[in-house]
Amino acid sequence: MNPPLIVAKVGGSLYDLPDLAERLRSWIAARHSHRVLLFPGGGILADAIRRFDEVHGVGEEPSHWLAIEALSLAAQFLGKLLPRTRLMPRIPLPPDGRGPFILDPLPFFREDEDQPGRLPHRWDVTSDSLAARVAACARAAELVLLKSVSYDSSDWKAACETRVVDGCFSFALNSACEIPAGRFHVRIVNLRQWPDERSSE
What we know:
It contains seven helices and six strands. The chain is of the alpha/beta class. The two termini are about 25 Å apart.
């Protein structure tokens, strides 16, 4: 039987961690009974696109796709940090092996554009919600948001309101439930404190 899949979004706020590669390798190794698909956060790359839009009025639709391209660049960055991972243009299939994998968001979301339940192209749809969409389409067992903050509640509406996750995240989770086998466990792990937080996983 193929091991269950975990989608793990690597928050862009973690990109300045000098030991990020080591922490990710350790976290992935602890998931030895699962396949792991990493999804990149945007960090300063996406922030630059947002700033361009503020200054030049690029617009949310074009900015959305520029931000997705920024995520694609971030995926390549993660691939350089973790050379034993496989950069995938799609959700990995059983013949692809156990991984770990990194999803390239650009080809995935281009393909997803014509599918039911795709997310709106707005600034409140960031990599949190995009990762939830990936987890739903992948029929993942779990979505883990690797961040620089801790959050122990399952009240995702409150998490949106307090900006722990993006403003569309609760909507993205509700949309995921409409996909067959689209329900998955969701949690946040503060990777800056891991493995000290291991007992709470």
